[in-house]
């Protein structure tokens, strides 16, 4: 009976956390092997209440300009710009725009000042692909990026977060999986002992 209760609680926690984890986008910026890599596993953005300022802009792809702040990941494509009137300020002192040397993914998204950048004709709430941008031979110092966490709040309560960090964070799903695995191991050990 206790095992069933523990499994049920674990399943409910996973179901309740899944929508929360997907209702936002996190872009992680790290130094890796002498390069700077900006990447995101994707996610969704509810643009309800955000103002469409421009559409069919570009094509634009992987790009960073810390003082504006502007940061895009993904391939060069047409984009839409939604003003969310929220800007955490600059993400560094670098004024010169720098284009990425390589990009991956099918969607371009990111931030530009108080605005959210999404692919042209993005449907609010649709899944954005995992995307990245790599700046070969660059560092946080050469791009003049400041480490920190920068959050753009959308009117819908969704967020787009840019984490500039020298440490690669472990995704929440990995922690959830690990704790569930430890719980299952504990149950198996208790079962064997009984």
What can you tell me about this protein's structure?
The longest helix has 22 residues, at 172-193. With 194 residues, the protein is of the alpha+beta class. The protein has one domain (25-168). Helix content is 24%, strand content 38%. It has helices at residues 2-22, 140-143, 172-193, and strands spanning 24-32, 35-40, 43-44, 51-60, 63-65, 70-73, 77-83, 98-99, 102-104, 109-112, 115-119, 127-128, 131-135, 148-153, 159-164. The protein has three helices and 15 strands.
Quick tags:
38% strand, seven-stranded antiparallel β-sheet, 194 residues, single chain, 24% helix, 15 strands, disordered N terminus, alpha+beta, 3 helices
Low-confidence stretches: 3-22
Major β-sheet strand ordering: 4-7-11-10-6-5-8
Distance between the termini: 14 Å
Helix proportion range: 10-25%
The gyration radius over C-alpha positions equals: 19 Å
- Following the backbone from N to C, one meets helices and strands in this order, namely HEEEEEEEEEEEEEHEEH
Number of domains: 1
Largest beta-sheet characterization: 7 strands, antiparallel
Task: Give the rounded overall mean pLDDT.
Answer: 82
How many helices? The count is: 3
Question: Based on helices, strands and strand pairing, what is the structural class?
Answer: alpha+beta
Q: How many strand segments?
A: 15
Specify the overall morphology: globular
């Amino acid at each position: 009976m206790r095992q069933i209760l523990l499994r049920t609680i674990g399943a409910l926690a996973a179901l309740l956390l899944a929508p929360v984890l997907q209702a936002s986008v996190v872009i992680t910026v790290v130094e890796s092997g002498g390069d700077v890599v900006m990447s995101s596993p994707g996610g969704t953005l509810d643009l309800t209440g955000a103002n469409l300022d421009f559409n069919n802009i570009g094509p634009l792809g992987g790009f960073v300009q810390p003082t504006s702040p502007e940061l895009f990941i993904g391939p060069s494509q047409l984009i839409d710009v939604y003003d969310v009137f929220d800007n955490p300020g600059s993400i560094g002192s670098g004024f010169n725009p720098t284009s990425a040397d390589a990009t991956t993914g099918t969607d371009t998204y990111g931030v530009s000042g108080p605005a959210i950048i999404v692919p042209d004709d993005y449907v609010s709430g649709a899944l954005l692909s995992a995307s990245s941008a790599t700046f070969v031979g660059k560092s946080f110092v050469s791009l003049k990026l400041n480490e920190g966490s920068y959050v753009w709040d959308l009117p819908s309560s969704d967020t787009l977060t840019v984490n500039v960090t020298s440490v690669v964070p472990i995704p929440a799903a990995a922690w959830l999986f690990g704790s569930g695995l430890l719980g299952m191991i504990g149950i198996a050990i208790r079962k064997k002992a009984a």
